[in-house]
Design goal:
Rossmann fold, alpha/beta, 6 strands, four-stranded mixed sheet, 28% helix
C-alpha cells in the first residue's frame, strides 16, 4: 500500500516493530524500503531491552513463555502507538493461516473500554494470494527480505522463526514446538465489527 500512497503523493505515518531480536536482513530491509518509498519508517521498540527482559524474566524468555515475550516486545509497543491513531493499516491476508481466514477488509476494534474509544483496522490485502503479492513486488521492483529466497515464508524474530516448505502453511515456521500461531498484535483487541468484502 505504500507504493500506491507514494504514487498518489499521500505521505502518512509508517511504523514497524523492532523487537531487538530481528534478523540482520530485516533491519537492513527497513533502510532499503525507506529509500525506495521516500517515507521514514518509525521503529517501535519495547520498554525493556533484551538484556533487561532477561534480568526480570530470565534468559531467552521466548524458549519458555513466547506469549509473554511477544506481549513485552510487540503487543505493548504497538498498543502505545495505537493510542495516537484512529486507523491502523496492516498487510494481513486470509491465505496466510487458518487463524486469518475470516479477517475483514475493514474492521472495527474496541481500543479502550473505559473511554469507549474504537479504532478502525484496514486490511486492504486480505483477499490477496501469496502469488499476487510476489507478482506485485516483482512487477514494481519493491525491495524484499532476502530470507524469503532462503525458504523463510514468514519472518519474525530470529529465535522464533525457521524455514518452512511450500506445502506448509505460510506461518508454519513460527514458534516451533509451541501451540502458538499469532504473536498477539492482531488478537489483543476485541473485534466489534468487520466487513467481508
Amino acid at each position: 500500500m505504500l507504493h500506491l500512497a507514494r504514487q498518489a503523493g499521500l505521505p502518512f505515518p509508517v511504523f514497524t516493530l523492532d523487537t531487538g531480536l530481528l534478523f540482520p536482513e530485516t533491519l537492513a530491509l527497513k533502510g532499503k524500503l525507506e529509500e525506495f518509498f521516500g517515507f521514514p519508517i518509525e521503529s517501535l521498540v519495547p520498554d525493556l531491552t533484551v538484556a533487561e527482559q532477561a534480568d526480570i524474566h530470565g534468559p531467552e524468555l521466548w524458549t519458555r513463555n513466547p506469549d509473554l515475550c511477544c506481549t513485552v516486545r510487540k503487543v505493548m509497543p504497538l498498543r502505545d502507538k495505537l493510542c495516537d491513531l484512529d486507523c491502523w493499516i496492516t498487510g494481513l491476508r486470509r491465505q496466510q493461516s487458518a487463524t486469518r481466514t475470516s479477517i475483514g477488509i475493514i474492521e472495527l476494534y474496541g481500543f479502550d473500554e473505559a473511554s469507549g474509544r474504537d479504532i478502525v483496522k484496514l486490511n486492504p490485502m486480505a483477499n490477496w494470494t501469496r502469488e499476487a503479492v510476489w507478482d506485485y513486488v516483482r512487477n514494481h521492483h519493491i525491495p524484499y527480505n532476502p530470507l524469503h529466497d532462503r525458504g523463510y515464508r514468514s519472518i519474525g524474530c530470529q529465535p522464533c522463526t525457521r524455514q518452512s516448505g511450500s506445502s506448509e502453511s505460510e506461518r508454519a515456521g513460527r514458534w516451533i514446538g509451541f501451540n502458538k500461531v499469532e504473536c498477539g498484535i492482531h488478537t489483543f483487541l476485541p473485534k466489534k465489527l468487520d466487513f467481508q468484502i
